Amino acid sequence: MSNVLLDANLLIAALDQNGTTSELLRQSATAKLTTYLENPDIRLVITPLIRYEVLRGLSWQDAEGYNNLKQVLDGFTEIDINRNVSELAANLFRFDRTTNAGAQRNVEKRKFDVFHLACAKIHGLDLASQDTDIASLQSLFDSYQQAGGLA
Q1: Is the entire prediction scored with pTM above 0.70?
Q2: Nearby residues of 142 by Cβ (< 8 Å), 6 or more positions away
Q3: Is the C or the N end of the chain the one with fewer CB within 10 Å?
Q4: pLDDT tens digits, residue range 56-105?
Q5: 68-83 in b/e burial notation, b at 16+ Cβ within 10 A?
Q6: Helices 133-146 and 83-99 meet at what angle, rounded to 10?
Q7: What share of the chain is helix, strand, coil (3-state, %, to 5)?
Q8: Strand partners, 42
Q9: 49/118 Cα distance (integer angstroms)
């Protein structure tokens, strides 16, 4: 059985009921999520941080939407974020800041992405995402390991 960590951006795009995601992106995310859901050999996983990212996008007035989305998220296996994940994420972020000092990045978004990648690496999960930055984070992780960092 394969375990797949669902990135928040994939879930947000696939489950967007408010029309804030482009139709093309939503269709792509829905197709990807459906493929995973239909495969009995895949266990879909989220973390409390991913739950937070998905749920925070709903307005306070949308209690029904919030509760519906919570029910969907409750259907996934949720794993805790532990010290090993936190330390790997911190080290990757620090390594990235040093090796890519001049790069223009959305640092706030990158903080979450690094955490999700670290969680996938520590728990031996594949990371399913709609985010094009994930490939660069994989390269960052590979460089980090080559520099002597441990997963």
Answers
A1: yes
A2: none
A3: N
A4: 988 899 999 999 999 999 999 999 899 999 999 999 989 988 887 666 55
A5: ebeeebeebeebebee
A6: 90
A7: 60, 10, 30
A8: 2
A9: 12
